[in-house]
Amino acid sequence: MNEPAWVQHAIWWHVYPLGFVGAEKAATEDPAAAHRLLDLVPWLDYAVELGASGLALGPVFASETHGYDTTDYFRIDARLGTSEDFDTLVREAHRRGLRILLDGVFNHTGRSFGPFQDVLAQGPGAATASWFSLDWPEGATPGAEPGYRDFEGHHHLVALNHGEPAVADFVTDVMEHWLRRGADGWRLDAAYAVPSSFWAGVTARVRASHPDAYFVGEYIHGDYASEVRAGGLDSATQYELWKAVWSSLNDANLFELAAALERHNALLGSFAPLTFLGNHDVTRIASRLTDPALLPHAVAVLLTVGGTPSLYYGDEQGYRGIKEDRAGGDDDVRPLFPPAPGNLSPVGRPVFDVHQELIGVRRRHPWLHRAKTEVLQLSNEVLAYRVAAENPEALVVALNLSSDAQPVPATGALSVLAGQATLDARSGTATLPPRAWAVLG
What per-residue confidence (pLDDT) applies to 327? Predict the structure, then answer.
């Protein structure tokens, strides 16, 4: 495992910049749109107050529309600002102790990507024709439109040919360029669609000059551990745990969550997964839960199990939003944020307080990063688990979905660190009120 030491303390606040600043839906060179990236600066102290230690940015590079159709990997999107604005954001973040994670879309590009435009203009003889998987019509000449491999049927997203050495050189150059400008790591979009051998070669080259860089791949299903190992990555997105958290709470079936925690334990044997309750691609947790009152239960799981937690902007305020499978269907989960924290509605403060309380527990127990869970009590509506790493310390986490008070084992616990419970340290038990949760230690 290559994970840099600083990642043990990482808790990301994940922002989708184009939505956060209210950028236009399509590319523009309008000077009035400049410098919006600086709109994030007033929120850095908020991220620190929340307890985050890093800012995970969605796409910031020049693109056609939503950022995942990149056109120039060496230029900040004009709707967000300039490279100098990026430098300012990084400088202000680092001054507050916040790391920066960038979103790298290296499986595919937008059609306006320069090397692909060269192909369209110059035909089969273009120097960059080998960068893509092309199917030319017979007798093709410059200006002809080839067939090409795209990303999951989205024809405006042109898949790169990862068997072409020049593509690996290009991706390496992009990563190193922004790491030199102060980024601390990369989220690799659609990593599952790229051969692991490609990631292995690129990350090895980048680590040679940036040994503290962090690489997390987007994987939705499959053998996460083998993909991380084969790709030379540090982590993968933990979609299995994400699904189990909200599904088990909705169905009052905590057996599903317990099973997912066992799988999670196995992953922790080789790497620390990126854990989350929300991101730019999924319905918000407050909307996903049938009973939003159980949101704190979900947050308690996220912030007490092993891994590297990521909090999607607005989730810590109880924001709602539903992802829909249609054009513009992501807009509801990629909203404009207010100009400054003081403009937030007070309605979200209780949810913020829960996040802050649990992040505080995690920051005081950094060993949770690689800790594993042991189920102590399990029924459809009650789950208690012990979480521990290779040290004498341990915590007990308990969830009660029932309408009755429930006793749970809490051997070794001396106090209630978060949530609600009555602890009897002498008997090693705790009682949770109806539909309550607690962290004991």
Answer: 85
Give the pLDDT confidence score for residue 411 in this predicted structure. 92
Burial 221-235 (b: 16+ CB within 10 A, else e): eeebbebbeebbbbb
Give residues with Cβ within 8 angstroms of 264, minimum separation 6: 238, 240, 241, 273, 305, 306, 307, 373
Q: What DSSP element (H or E) covers 407?
A: strand 406-409
One-letter amino acid for residue 441 of the chain: G
Is residue 440 within 8 A of residue 423, CB to CB? The reply is yes
Q: Which residue, among 224, 225, 252, 256, has the nearest Cα to 243 in the 3D structure? A: 256
pLDDT one-digit tens code per residue, 31-72: 666 799 999 999 999 999 999 999 999 999 999 999 999 999
What is the CB neighbour count within 10 angstroms for residue 237? 24
pLDDT in tens, 182-200: 999 999 999 999 999 999 9
Dihedral sign, Cα of residue 17, residue 54, residue 51, residue 235: positive
Buried b vs exposed e over 244-256: b needs ≥16 C-beta within 10 Å? bbbebbeeebbeb
